[in-house]
Design brief:
This protein is mostly beta strands and 154 residues long. The protein has one helix and ten strands, in the order αββββββββββ. The strands form two sheets. Strands 1, 2, 4, 5, 7 and 8 form a six-stranded antiparallel β-sheet that branches. It has a four-stranded antiparallel β-sheet with strand order 6-3-9-10.
Length: 154
């Protein structure tokens, strides 16, 4: 076996191990995406992220080919009571043995510069990148009719 083949085999094994770890400790529930309509240039995704591991983890970024830019966002209320969306560069802590909800009016995945409109019933491919668990890929269903304020934990 050549050095290149050994290196590729090692990298593949490491990638598999990272994916397996993510699958064991991070689960996603109640995921959906939406935009304001067919002409919208932006959209968002919401879900509940469960961490069954024994240590806190952190969602550090999200990636998707569905938009020119994908960021982790939250809403902050300014001194005048006006809500403003802001990029959360440090990401979101997912507590050990707990959950973190990405929901409308709060933390969420923001898609800016949509490549194509979000169509009801379609899916948006998203890769969530965690500090410890690594990458988790999900196809987020688009639901333009949902009226609730997003993901919830029960």
């Amino acid at each position: 076996m050549s050095l290149t083949s050994k290196l590729l085999a090692t990298l593949a094994a490491a990638a598999f191990a990272t994916t397996a770890m993510a699958q064991e400790t991070i689960t996603l529930e109640d995921a959906y995406a939406r935009s304001a309509g067919k002409t919208a240039k932006a959209g968002a995704a919401f879900m509940v992220i469960q961490n069954t591991g024994e240590a806190d983890d952190r969602l550090v970024r999200a990636e998707s080919e569905a938009a020119a830019r994908v960021e982790l966002h939250t809403h902050l209320i300014d001194a005048n009571g006006v809500a403003q969306m802001t990029h959360v560069e440090e990401g979101f802590v997912i507590p050990a043995g707990g959950a973190h909800a990405l929901k409308r009016g709060g933390d969420h995945v923001m898609f800016m510069g949509l490549v194509a409109p979000f169509e009801h019933g379609a899916t948006v491919p998203v890769t969530l990148v965690f500090e410890k668990a690594g990458e988790v890929e999900i196809d987020v269903p688009v639901d333009l009719e949902r009226k609730d304020m997003g993901a919830h934990t029960n």
